Amino acid sequence: MSDYLPFLISGLGLGAVYALSGVGLVVLYRSSGVLNFAFGALGAIGAYVAWSVLDAELPQALAWAVALATSMGLSLAYGRLLAPRLAHRDPTIRSIATLGFALILMGFTEWFWGEQPRRLVLPTDADGLELGEVRLTYTRVLGLALALGMMAGIGLLLSKTRTGLKMRALANDRDLSALLGLRVLQVDTVAWVLSGAFAGVCGLLLANIVRLQATLLTFLVIPAFAAAMLGRLNSLPITVAAGIGIGVLEALAITLPGFAPFRTSVPFLVALAALPFFRNDARKA
Amino acid sequence: MNARAHSFLPPNCMNDASLLPPAKAQARLQLQRDLRAAAQRARHSWLLMLAGLGLIAIAVPLLANAFWMKSLISSLALSVAVAGLALLYGQLGLVSLCQHALLGAGGWVALRLSHGFGLPFELCLLAAGLCSCGIGMVAGLPALRLKGLYLALVTLMMAGAFQVLVSATGFPDGGDGWLGRVVGSERLMMARPALALSDEAYFRYVAFCLAAVLSLIEWHRRSRAGRSWALIRRGEAAATAAGVNILFYQTWAFGLAGFCAGVSGALLAGGVGQLDGRAFGAAESVMMLALTVVGGVYHWLGPIISGLLMRAVPSLLSDFNVNGFLADIFFGAALLHALITAPQGIAGQLMGALKALRQRLQALHETREARQA
């Protein structure tokens, strides 16, 4: 068992990020019907902004704040300016449109900051907790805590507050809610900002764990789509469980002889294996 | 859309009630006339496509230098794959995000057969097309249960899995064993067809293949398959009620799209000589879908434009020393523009502009004639 412990713990870190991304995607999809393919790009641009702030030797708290504000602001801008123009189209088209936004953000980031990969080194990387033989940097601890906190927060928001009630109403039936006088645009705004915040946190963590490169970060979100898919784009608890499970499995796959070069395919294989259990929704007229 | 609605109205000269034959006969006559006109338009469009590609095949090798020859060969080869993707998106409304992965699979098969058995290029091309056709059919099976967004996600997962697979194993380059990887010695290039060894001849060869594939798709669209696809798009209940075998025709569409991807992969491998495993990420498949929509999915010009956007535009930018990532910004904006205001893509806008120009010229001509009279 102790042989597997280091992989288990590094898997938990990656899984937390997958879960966090999955939750950010599902929260937005439930309330506005858009699956945000620009999620990774939003996180990437936030991470680059944080890198610039740290590069100017400003405090880390400010870097986090500015990065989150960038992601949230851009997400909000898309949600309010461009998304409503497609509001009457079906969810597939609305989601494909976010690909366009992702390309714009990715192109801008690569052009503005240059394409050489770098690493986002946070001051909290320097020290860490000793857990048996495994060392956990404070950034990972912070990331895990933040992930758990944000997921608990979003759960509370959805179940206890009036905004959460409205979001659940929209998720249930968008047209009917609008007919009852719910301010759809207002709720959408909240959802886009929340999703942007999740994207910002994920971007920072991934830039720290993997590396800071816009193209990579934009498409690193694809495994998170697997988690969201397992949660059927609807259930937050299942998405969280799937995200963490996928992360741990991916890390444990290193120990499988001969499978190590293919281990990053674990999220896709898990998602594809789950396909036969999906509800048949093609028979609608 | 509007044009079609108008054409079903009776012409002005027939509004006189005393001249009207019984309404039913009139409507049937009008329908027949409209159908005949539509068939003629489709035939004209097809002949125009053949003529256009023929012209390109003759003119481009005379004008372009070696660098542009290579990049235009890749563009036309990619157009073949885009044609398949445009078929799925335009005819059935299905979003597939694994077309570039299927292209890679086709390229792999073509390279392996060419290096391993020294088969002639045409056989490799056909085998690549058939292999990708089979994989495409399997990839399309989930679409029978999952529509829309889920299909996009499932195909994205497949593209992701292919990315991991191919970046770990790489493409065959003349070595031994099942994977055909060279260790140590020089990497081999794929043999080109005996007919087309030079770049110029190979460009014509690719243009011919593109014309053949576009004709194949056009033939499908006009036959029973095209009508079945239109019904499936309307809704599966309607299609079932009309007696369409959904399993067969939907799988057929995916197979046809896969065939296009495989042929495209073999053509690309023949053009470049070898393929790079790192160039077949999920991002490429996503980019291909975006540019397919930008180019236009309802007209044969669309895939050609998309192919140019994918390879020729980046070459053009590097010619002018512009940062290539600015192209991404442009592509993203173009995708949003296409989805929000121009669902027929660049091809539709070009055709619309041509039509408006022709109408204006005609009006000018008529007023001049009236003045002279």
Gross geometry of chain B: globular
Structural class of chain A: mainly alpha
Oligomer: heterodimer
Give the N-terminus to C-terminus distance of chain A in angstroms: 53 Å
First-residue to last-residue Cα separation of chain B: 37 Å
Residue-averaged pLDDT of chain A: 85
Order of helices and strands of chain B: HHHHHHHHHHHHHH
Count of individual helical segments of chain A: 12
Classify the fold: give the CATH topology of chain B: ABC transporter involved in vitamin B12 uptake, BtuC
Shape descriptor of chain A reads globular
Find the structural class of chain B using helix and strand composition.
mainly alpha
What pattern of helices and strands is seen along the backbone of chain A? Answer: HHHHEEHHHHHHHH
Strand line-up across the major sheet of chain A: 1-2
What is the number of beta strands of chain A?
2
How much of the residues of chain B is beta strand, in percent?
Answer: under 5%
Question: The biggest beta sheet of chain A, please?
Answer: 2 strands, antiparallel
The most extensive contact between chains is: A-B, 52 and 48 residues
Return the domain count of chain B: 1
Rg of Cα set of chain B: 23 Å
What is the annotated CATH architecture of chain B? Orthogonal Bundle
Give a written overview of the molecule.
The complex is a heterodimer of chains A (285) and B (373). Chain A is mostly helical. Chain A has one domain (16-237). In chain A, 69% of the residues lie in helices and 3% in strands. Chain A contains twelve helices and two strands; from the N terminus they run H-H-H-H-E-E-H-H-H-H-H-H-H-H. Chain A has helices at 5-32, 39-55, 60-82, 91-113, 138-160, 162-172, 174-179, 184-209, 214-219, 222-230, 236-252, 266-273; strands at residues 128-131, 134-137. A two-stranded antiparallel sheet of chain A has the order 1-2. In chain A, helix 1 (5-32) crosses helix 6 (162-172) and helix 6 (162-172) packs across helix 8. The termini of chain A are far apart. Chain B has helices at 2-7, 23-63, 66-92, 99-117, 121-140, 149-169, 199-222, 224-234, 236-241, 246-272, 282-295, 301-319, 325-340, 345-372. With 373 residues, chain B is an all-alpha fold. Chain B has 14 helices and no strands. In chain B, 44% of the residues are buried. Chain B is globular and about 80 Å long. The chains are: A mainly alpha (285), B mainly alpha (373).
